[in-house]
TrEMBL record:
Keywords: ATP-binding, DNA-binding, Nucleotide-binding, Transcription, Transcription regulation
TM region(s), chain numbering: none
Molecular functions per Gene Ontology: ATP binding; DNA binding
PROSITE patterns: SIGMA54_INTERACT_1, SIGMA54_INTERACT_2, SIGMA54_INTERACT_3, SIGMA54_INTERACT_4
PANTHER family associated with the record: TRANSCRIPTIONAL REGULATORY PROTEIN
Alphabetized Gene3D superfamilies for the sequence: 1.10.8.60, 3.30.450.40, P-loop containing nucleotide triphosphate hydrolases (3.40.50.300)
Organism taxonomic ancestry: Bacteria, Bacillati, Actinomycetota, Coriobacteriia, Eggerthellales
Protein name: AAA domain-containing protein
Compositionally biased tracts (Basic and acidic residues): 333-342
Organism: Adlercreutzia mucosicola
Length: 690
């Protein structure tokens, strides 16, 4: 249901005058808050505010000093970006920090934001709803707050316990439609900084840390250093600075894009607060044409552990002159959360994957962290766990403008793989096309190259790949000319990479180059709580493709699917859902008897009583013990061979396997093997000097 500001006004008037809730004109959670306010005797016309409790504020700020250090950089960024107030509350809804672009604004700092005192608002509703919320205009219970627009996102622990929130409030104009997403992302970024602790300056070393916020903002934004060199920008800014990211970080001047009528020094002289938008002249293309882009906010962002930079926020299409929302955001309209695709990117690449378990949330957090950073990633996991999906998510969230190019290293013969990757010059070999061919390395320039099944790549070709990664250049077959590349590589394998290294089937130096960030994707059986979400998505997606009615799967069928171990992981689950829809015509008709017999049998065993379940479990445990014994013996044989080849030198063996010596020692002890520690005179003298 769609709600508008006019609806909210009509509903508020009716409620204040008669206590009647107009259910078709106000959101249920807002109506429930109004009812609570009325029951507590709060006057909607009251204008009093709690006074700042200075002593309690001092105590809270001392207690939450670490939280303040982690949140301040992100809050300062938001204040500049939105020109709005940003505040922090603890679990008691006490405001212990507030940053504002206004000279005097301290109304809520050092006070409790409780419903019984201040009425319905984003700061009070977030504590009740325990989820991100937005409040606009006449949704506020007290008339004095109805010129506000606000959003809030909670801080929750793993058990769902609420322990505070971040609020963004604008007393002058409606917040942009993306404000709620910005608040949610800001909470995640502050949690990253808090977890990093003393290492947080490493995250703040460049403006890439703030890229998720830039990507969400829909109007042009530019970040420059104190000398006017471009550090970062969002996609809408590309129209005005089209090739800024083709230069190394912080090397291209904004002056290259400004018309002669204005220089960056002119912009630096601007005060933080502009009374009205300032037209900034930009050059358009190679012609002498000039177009003006209104600058609505300009100011320095600085903080502990980070180099200061200047944020330039320009007026977007449809944005008000005061820098407000670009479109009328209906009061209280609930923003739809996009579905996440678990196995394939949908049209438009606007979603990534589905997963709400802690195992998958950890993957999602890591993807968000590494995506903006140009570093190679190695994805490990069983077949069907979604390695290519994660690779595509990394590319999409990276902001790289080049294409995502996927190559399956195990699906092509050696000679074809070489030409596929490197390309060739015309006439390079018998049968080659006269015009030659562009390889995948070159085709992915500026984007991301996904090397699936990297463990299948021949060893001699691994040497060539290593050179490409080290030198960031590629040479076509039959050519002597190297071409420079701007390339990011994401590799994946379902094999034991350490075992491949030990067997000399994979180069350790290539492994180190590829695994700057390593992600192990969890098997579906380790995140069973995601199965109903995945089934729902596949059901909806495949029902549309198969032209059958979309109806939910029965609860007992979902439970049966949860009980299966899914050796083929998410890919196997999708295939089963598709088969069921083809056979039964719609989700509601898919009973347990419609499932493949091996899934139905497992479900039946689990439901047949303690004895059958115990027998099945014991049988599975026996098989697991046998498999573990085989794996241990294979590892013992491989490791014994490596120990012999390297003369028992534990440091050399550890370096060869890419693990720490202590970890190797523990593993050797577990497998009943021995090695020795070699320290020569030079190493001893180095240790003494150190």
């Amino acid at each position: 249901m769609t709600y508008s500001d006019e609806h909210a006004l009509e509903a508020w008037k009716a409620f204040v005058s008669s206590g009647t809730i107009m259910e078709d004109k106000v959101r249920p959670e807002v109506a429930a808050s109004w009812l609570r306010c009325r029951a507590m005797g709060l006057d909607p016309w009251s204008s009093t505010f709690e006074k700042e409790n200075t002593s309690l504020l001092r105590e809270k700020r001392e207690r939450f000093a670490a939280s303040l250090r982690a949140t301040t950089p992100v809050m300062k960024f938001l204040v500049r970006l939105l020109g709005s107030n940003v505040s922090l509350m603890d679990g008691e809804n006490f405001v212990f920090e507030l940053l504002s672009p206004m000279m005097m604004y301290s109304r809520t700092l050092g006070t409790f934001m409780r419903e019984k005192d201040v009425g319905t608002g984003n700061a009070t509703l977030v504590a009740t709803e325990r989820r991100p919320v937005r409040m606009d205009g006449f949704e506020h219970y007290r008339a004095i707050a109805q010129h506000y627009s606000g959003v809030a996102a909670p801080y929750m622990d793993v058990n769902g316990r609420y322990f505070g929130a971040m609020n963004i409030n604008s007393p002058l104009q409606s917040l942009p439609p993306e404000a709620l997403d910005l608040c949610v992302e800001a909470v995640k970024l502050t949690q990253e900084l808090f977890a990093a602790g003393a290492r947080s300056p490493l995250l703040l070393a460049t403006t890439e840390f703030f890229k998720p916020l830039l990507n969400l903002y829909r109007s042009p934004v530019l970040l420059v250093d104190m000398e006017g060199r471009i550090l970062n920008a969002n996609a809408p800014m590309r129209t005005w600075c089209p090739d800024w990211d083709e230069f190394s970080y912080g090397s291209q001047s904004i002056g290259a894009y400004l018309a002669k009528a204005m220089t960056f020094k002119d912009m630096l002289r601007l005060s933080d607060g502009l009374n009205e938008p300032l037209p900034v002249p930009f050059k358009r293309g190679r012609s002498r044409a000039v177009a003006e882009l209104p600058l609505v906010r300009c100011g320095k962002v600085e903080g502990e552990g980070m180099d200061p930079f200047i944020m330039l926020v320009f007026q977007g299409e449809g944005e008000s002159a005061g820098g407000g929302s670009r479109e009328a955001a209906p009061a209280g309209k609930k923003k739809e959360t996009p579905r996440r695709d678990a196995t394939a990117m949908p049209t438009g690449a606007t979603v990534d994957y589905i997963g709400e378990t802690e195992e998958w949330k950890a993957i999602d957090a890591l993807v968000r962290k590494v995506a903006p950073i140009r570093t190679n990633v190695l994805l490990l996991g069983e077949t069907g766990t979604g390695k290519e999906v994660v690779a595509r998510a990394i590319h999409r969230r990276s902001g790289r403008k080049g294409p995502f190019v996927a190559v399956n290293c195990g699906a092509l013969p050696r000679d074809l793989l070489a030409t596929e990757l490197f390309g060739y010059e015309g006439g390079a070999f018998t049968g080659a096309r006269d015009e030659g061919a562009t390889g995948k390395f070159e085709f992915a320039d500026g984007g991301t190259l996904f090397l699936d099944e990297i463990g299948e790549m021949p060893v001699d070709m691994q040497v060539s790949l290593l050179r490409v990664l080290q030198e960031s250049t590629v040479t076509k077959l039959g050519s002597n000319t190297a071409k420079a590349l701007d390339l990011r590589v994401v590799a994946a394998t379902n094999q034991n990479i350490q075992q491949l290294i030990a067997q000399k089937q994979f180069r350790s130096d290539l492994y180190y180059r590829l695994s700057m960030v390593e992600m192990s994707l969890p098997q579906l059986r380790k995140r069973r709580d995601d199965i109903p979400l995945l089934v729902e998505y596949f059901n909806e997606q495949l029902s549309a493709q198969l032209n059958v009615p979309f109806t939910p799967f029965p609860a007992e069928t979902l439970q049966a699917l949860r009980s299966y171990s899914w050796p083929g992981n998410v890919r196997e689950l999708r295939n089963v859902v598709e088969r069921c829809l083809i056979m039964d015509g719609e989700g509601a008709k898919v009973g347990t008897s419609s499932l493949p017999f091996y899934i139905e049998n497992v479900a039946s065993s689990a439901a047949s009583g303690p004895m059958m379940s115990l027998e099945w479990a014991l049988g599975s445990e026996l098989l697991q013990r046998q498999a573990a014994a085989l794996r241990a013996e294979e590892e013992r044989r491989s490791l014994r061979q490596t120990v012999a080849e390297l003369d028992g030198d534990i440091d050399r063996i550890a370096r060869h396997l890419g693990i720490a010596p202590d970890e190797l020692s523990d593993r050797l002890e577990q497998l009943g093997l021995r090695a020795r520690i070699v320290i020569d005179d030079e190493e001893i003298s180095d240790c003494i000097r150190w």
